[in-house]
Design goal:
Helix content is 65%, strand content 0%. By secondary structure, it is mostly helical. The protein has 2 domains: 4-54 and 168-210, no CATH class; 61-148.
């Protein structure tokens, strides 16, 4: 049997979802009305988690700040070397490339110390932080681990990394509405299957209808 209340809620939620996907705003009171108590509680918790994540991202540990400063210095040296090389001053370029190699090597050594002291800091990097001479990370600008908040060209999209979890309020609303729609649709499917199962039982045992 169709639950008309859930059917109405699902229709309203699809409308809200469409508005959000078009870039339009959806008021919290509308969410509260059509998500229901449990769904709206999920939205409030999800947005609170986003605020906590923003607080974490805005307050980097000292070790991460230090790493970024060292990486910036090494990148500066490397870029100077490239400029000299492009201008044909190969002697100066060679000297600076050598200096950059040393700075990147020291940076990676320092990274090992940082992670050994606090393994949880791995979440701040866009890739694995282990370093061996034949490994993926090496003393090249594009091969050095980047902090996930970096806007540099070598920052890889982290797979489930810290920054990947950051969502704006519209995205949170979309995610919660989709979750609630899936729950409602799953509930309808379950009810339909149960109805079919009961009908099948009655067909197999017709005498039960006369009880």
């Amino acid at each position: 049997m169709v639950n008309h209340e859930d059917e109405t809620r699902a229709r309203k939620l699809r409308g809200l979802l469409g508005r959000l996907k078009q870039g339009k705003n959806v008021q919290n009171r509308d969410l509260q009305t059509w998500l229901g108590a449990v769904g709206y509680k999920r939205y409030v918790a999800a947005w609170a988690a986003q605020l906590d994540l923003r607080d974490v991202l805005d307050n980097k540990p000292d070790a991460i700040v230090e790493y970024e400063a060292r990486l910036k210095r090494a990148n500066f040296t490397f870029n100077r070397a490239e400029r000299y090389s492009q201008k044909g001053n190969h002697t100066a370029a060679k000297k600076l490339f050598g200096a950059a190699d040393i700075e990147y090597e020291q940076l990676l050594e320092r990274l090992q110390e940082i992670i050994a002291a606090d393994p949880s800091l791995n979440m701040w990097f866009d890739r694995g932080t282990s370093w061996t001479w034949d490994g993926e990370n090496n003393i090249e600008p594009e091969l050095v681990p980047q902090v996930v908040t970096s806007k540099g060209q070598f920052n890889r999209t982290p797979n489930g990394g810290l920054k990947m979890g950051k969502m704006d309020k519209r995205a949170v609303k979309i995610d919660v509405i989709k979750h609630e729609l899936a729950r409602l649709e799953c509930g309808d499917l379950t009810s339909e299957l149960l109805a079919k199962r009961r009908a099948g039982i009655r067909n197999v045992h017709p005498e039960r209808d006369s009880d």
